[in-house]
Amino acid sequence: MERPLTSLQRELIIGSLLGDGHLRPHRGKVVFEFLQTARRRFYVEWKHRILKDIACPKIYHSKNDREYYKIVTRTHFELMELYRLFYHEGRKVVPENIKELLTPFVIAVWFMDDGSKSRDAVYFNTQGFSLKDQFRLIKALRKFHLIFNLNRDGDYYRLRLLKRHNRRFTEIVGPYVLEEFKNKLPTP
User: Which of 48, 77, 93 is the last residue of a domain?
Assistant: First the structure.
């Protein structure tokens, strides 16, 4: 019998699914994958340490003379549950119960994966999600008294935090953001 994921492992995976992580069917079950360039090796190693008891040991990969780092987990029953929540017809979606799944740590992981800052405005690069999913995220983030709106990015949209909420955002996610990503946080 597999032991359940720890709350930290589950939250890391959820935050990653909102960002750069993926769940992939594998032999009738599901694995979690996360890939980054060599420049972000530290970040992959950090996630690997949290997922160590379900992660495959090898994280280094190279392909076509490009070096990158990747986490692939073993299959786990909770990954199948998350797959059912976050995927519809093979496409990543925002689950209807995302409000219940969000925690400060989930938001911090999501921010480290897909967040950015421009002129002290915080963005989540949610362009891969439908508008309906993005509105679901905006509504869910209100749970933390964070007000986001949609920001046009070419032909797509992404989430943008209202600047008056910068201090609140930093208070919520700052304790969990790795030192290497602190420069992405807004100045209060």
Answer: 93
- Residue 25 in contact with residue 86, Cβ under 8 Å? no
Q: Say if strands 148-153 and 121-124 run parallel, antiparallel, or are unpaired.
A: unpaired
- Is residue 187's pLDDT more than 90? no
Asked if 52 and 79 sit in the same domain, the reply is: yes
CATH number at residue 124: 3.10.28.10
Domain count, the chain: 2
- For residue 127, report the phi and psi dihedrals to the nearest 5 degrees: -60, -25
Structural domain boundaries enclosing 123? 99-174
Q: What is the tens place of the pLDDT at every residue in 64-85?
A: 788 889 999 999 999 999 999 9
Residue 149 pLDDT > 70: yes
pLDDT at 188: 67
Q: What is the reported pTM?
A: 0.95
| Residue corresponding to tokens 């003379």 | 65
Q: Residues 113, 21: contact at Cβ < 8 Å?
A: yes
pLDDT digits (tens, 9 = 90+) for 18-44: 999 999 999 999 999 999 999 999 999
